[in-house]
Amino acid sequence: MIHSQKPYWPYLLAAPMAFSFPAWSQTAAAHDVDFTVDEAAMIRIVDANASPAGVMNFHVQAPAIPGQAFPSVASQSTYMQFTSVKGASPDNVRQVDVDLIGGSLPSGVQLTVSPSLNGTGTMGTGAPITFSASNGTGTLISGIQSAYTGDAPGDGVLLQYALNFATQNLDAASSGMITLRYTISNS
Amino acid sequence: MISLGTGGRLGALLLLLSWAARAQISVINGLAHFHPCGDPSLGEIVVANTLDSAVRVFLEVEHPVEHPHIAIPSEWILEAGQRAAIPYHWLDADSSSQAVRVWVYSTLPQARAEMGTWTVQTQIRYAISLFRGCLTTSPERDVRADWGNTLTWQMVGPDFWSAQVQAYGTLGEAIQAPFDLFLTPFGTSVSQPLPHGTSYVVARDSRGYQIGCKRP
Question: Exposed, middle or buried, B42 (CB in 10 Å: 0-12/13-18/19+)?
């Protein structure tokens, strides 16, 4: 490792994104023009109508003929809409983690959340998370910098929810409520 | 719910994923704040309520040790469309290195699970990292860099360090944009992907302290 201690190449360090540009001329009074950029982290989950309200029903229905396994169910989706403006290090990269809290999936049932990234800017990288009785956490998107998804219907990170199960693992006595918690943080 | 209906026909297991209308908040002054020692030991977290109804914001502090490092309100009421700066201050204004994480979230609506159904609700939470301490003036002594498939940086000293890392090719040409590096003295490391053709890197901070590292 080589090193030196000469002052060199100064730059902003962990400072708000505030810049000042002096404006002057010989015929006008000098004044400063200041502007600031919010270091925003805004996130919401909406349905296909871009409404924060929504209900998804997964009907795990019995087969038509005795002896058959329960048929699979179609996946459903929501959208994650966000606006992110990164700042100086250490808030220059962000990620979204998902935790299953406030309950647990019944044994033998898995819920997979798969992201498809859509937006403008550095959206990062998405990875599916499979929740089960034994796994309740994962990183959904990493490497987010400055980006936005839009807020119109169909805008945003498409989150597909797929329910996976095997008939022999189902238990009709299982019911209740679980919470998926989406956490955005700096990486 | 699987039920044995008339004729012995199996019923349906219904899993209900419910997204009820709920308050939504945003954090608009960053998810990580660093307070250099010597600076005022005050800060604020700016939150905004983007909906047209009031919301109760909860702030939960996670300390790495039991000793609390900051004082911050645990709750804050945001009126519709309101933006508020929630203040906090560091309790120990000395030169020690400190870090806390503040979880910011809003009220979770009451959801009710019905018999034979599974109800899944969602919650949005913001994790805000707060750091306070001194920046090292001896990165050549305090910072460790290990070459592998990536370049792994680690602070082995007692202070923080923030720098930009520039990769260079064999002819001394800069490769790609600089990489933002922030090292904390709590044992964590940072892996930096290296662009193809990197021969050496130089990490420089805003005060002119710099270290170089050549690919072995």
Answer: exposed
DSSP β-ladder status, A54-61 and A31-36: unpaired
**Cβ count within 10 A of residue B54:** 14
Q: Residue A68's CB: how many other CB atoms inside 10 A?
A: 10
Tell me, yes or no, if A141 comes closer than 8 A to chain B by beta carbon. no
Are the beta carbons of B160 and B184 closer than 8 angstroms? yes
CB atoms within 10 A of CB A184: 24
DSSP secondary structure string, A38-92?
-B-EEEEEE-TTS-S-EEEEEEEEPPSSTTSPPPP---EEEEEEEEE---STTSS
Residue A8 contacts B where some CB pair is shorter than 8 Å: yes
Q: Which chain B residues touch A174 with a CB distance below 8 Å?
A: 118
- Tell me: the pLDDT tens digits for B77-131? 999 999 999 999 999 888 899 999 999 998 766 655 555 556 777 889 999 999 9
CB atoms within 10 A of CB B193: 11
A177 with B34: Cβ contact below 8 A: no
The distance from CA B10 to its chain's CA centroid, rounded to whole angstroms, is: 48
> Which two structure tokens, joined as six digits, stand for A108?
């033998």
- Cβ atoms within 10 A of the Cβ of A61, count? 15
Residues of chain B found within 8 Å of residue A186, distances taken between Cβ atoms? 31-32, 127, 129
Q: What is the ipTM of this complex?
A: 0.82
Nearest CA in chain A to B129: A186
Tell me how far apart the alpha carbons of residues B124 and B85 are, in angstroms, rounded to a whole number: 19
Rg (CA), chain B: 24
pLDDT tens digit sequence for A41-94: 899 888 889 887 555 667 777 899 999 998 888 888 899 999 999 888 788 899
Neighbours of A51 (CB within 10 A): 11
* Maximum CA extent, chain B: 82
Q: Work out the number of other CB atoms within 10 angstroms of the CB of residue B15.
A: 27
Q: From A17, which residue of chain B is nearest by alpha-carbon distance? A: B29
Which domains are delineated in chain B? Answer: 15-133 (2.60.40.10), 139-214 (2.60.40.10)
Q: Which helix (H) or strand (E) holds B129?
A: strand B117-133
Q: Scanning the structure block, which residue is given the tokens 């959208």?
A: A79
Q: pTM, whole model, 2 decimals?
A: 0.81
